[in-house]
Amino acid sequence: MSTVTRMWVVTIVLVGASVVIGRASQTETTLQRQPFSVFPMTISKWSGRPDPPLTQHVLDVLGADDYLSRTYYSASGEMANLYMGFYKEQREGDTIHSPLNCLPGAGWEPIEKQRVQLRTPNGPAVVNELVIEKGIEHQVVLYWYQAHGRIVASEYWGKTYLVLDALRLNRTDGSMIRVITNLGDNMKEGRPRASALAHEFAEMVLPMLAPYVPS
Prior knowledge:
The chain is α+β, with helices and mostly antiparallel strands. It is built from five helices and nine strands, in the order αββαββαββββαβα. Helix content is 30%, strand content 31%. Strands 1, 2, 3, 4, 5, 6, 7, 8 and 9 form a nine-stranded antiparallel β-sheet that branches.
């Protein structure tokens, strides 16, 4: 994103934010959704196991109204971790947190970042792909923001759509979806396989999200 475009986006967010906050006392339009707790434990060749519950401190920081944290395993031992957080309303101090801010707090440092495309029934979707490291451990991370039938990779555009949808739809609900696969300690050999696994798993999850992330 160019400097001019970024400044334009930030200006829209700052101007629109005051309108959104000013409408905070109004009742938002609420659509029915399924809780993440009923998201399938089995996805094709993958079988899920719940991760340990997040601590209250982490939950307070995240501010999510509903979340899912599971690790899925294939019969051959492949692993994919899935996190999904849903926010009924996003107001000042209660907005979706970017993994770029949260991962370093857990000791993981992003060392690579790029935009990639996932295949979906509605055409390609652009999402973020990171390589993160902690000591000799490395992981591949895919993440995106999803709300109102829209998949967004950019934090800037995510905030812009938040303001526009609050004005247009009287809705500020949204979700962040994250998939992690292990890369191992050999970047050269592990990176292609870990990335391919993350893409494969994410492309199976995406068509399943409609009941849990309202359009």
